[in-house]
Amino acid sequence: MPALNLTGATVLVTGAASGIGRATSRALITAGANVALLDLRQEAVDDVAAEFGSHALPVAADVTDLAAMQTVVAKVVDRFGALDVCFANAGIAAKKPVTIKGSSVEEFERIVEVDLLGVWRTVRACLPAITEARGHVLMTASVYAFYNGIGNAPYAASKAGVEAFGRSLRGELAGTGSTAGVLFPGWVDTPIIRASHDDEVTKELIRLGNPGILGKPVSPEVIAAAVVRGIEKRSARVIAPRVWVPLFVARGAFGIATDALIDRHRRMQSLLRRIDG
Description:
The chain is about 50% helix and about 15% strand. By secondary structure, it is α/β, with parallel strands linked by helices. It has one domain: 3-Layer(aba) Sandwich (Rossmann fold), CATH 3.40.50. The chain has a 7-stranded parallel β-sheet with strand order 3-2-1-4-5-6-7, sandwiched between helices. α1 (about 20-30) crosses α8 and α3 (about 65-80) runs parallel beside α4 (about 105-135). The N and C termini lie far apart (about 50 Å).
C-alpha cells in the first residue's frame, strides 16, 4: 500500500482530551494533519483545541452512541471536506484492580461498552467516509489483548476483542485501497494506570505480573510517535514500547507459560484474594 501522507489529511481521534489521545493529536497536528478532537466533555476538548488552533475541531460525544458518532463524522466532513483516518482510541478501566467475582456488574459492562462496543460504533460511523477517502482506521487495543488479565478482566477481554475486530476489518478492506490496524500500547503514564497504584497490594500485584522493564510506564508521547509512524505506513500492528514485540511474536508460548506461572504463584494468588477485600 502507498504511504498515507498526513499533510492536509483529516484525522478523528476519540479519547482526545488526555493521555494517548491528547499526545497523538499534538503529534498529528505537528505532522500537518487536521484533527477532530472527540471526548465526553466539551470543555475538555475545547481546552485541547485552544492549544492546537484552527487545525483542530473540538466535539463532545459518547462513543457508545452510534447516532451521535454519525453526527460527529458529518460535522468533520463538513468542516474539513473529508475524513482520512479514524483513531478509535477512547477507553476506560476499573478504578482499581478487582477480580471477576468482586466486580460490580455495572462497572464490568460499562468497560466492555466503551472499550469494545465504543470502538465498533466509532468505526461503524467513520467507515463510509474512510473508504471514500481510501483512508486508514487504527484501533487501540493493549498488550492485555494477549497478556493474562488477572485483576482487570473486562479491560483485557475488551482489548482482545478489539484486536480480533481490527484484524477482521483489515482483511475485509484488503484490495480496496483502505486499511486498518491495531495499536498495542504497553504500560503508559496516563490517569488509567495511576489509579491502579493507589495502595501497596495492587502495586505489588502489578510488580509481580509485570517484572522489570515490562512494568515501567512510558510517556504518552512515546506511543503518539509510534501511532503517527503506524498511520503513515498503514501498519497492521503498532506495538509500543518495542520491548513488547518479542512477547507478541511468542504470544502462544508466552501465554501458556504465564498462565501456568499464575497457577503456581502463591503470592499472586494471595494478593488477588486481598484486592477484593
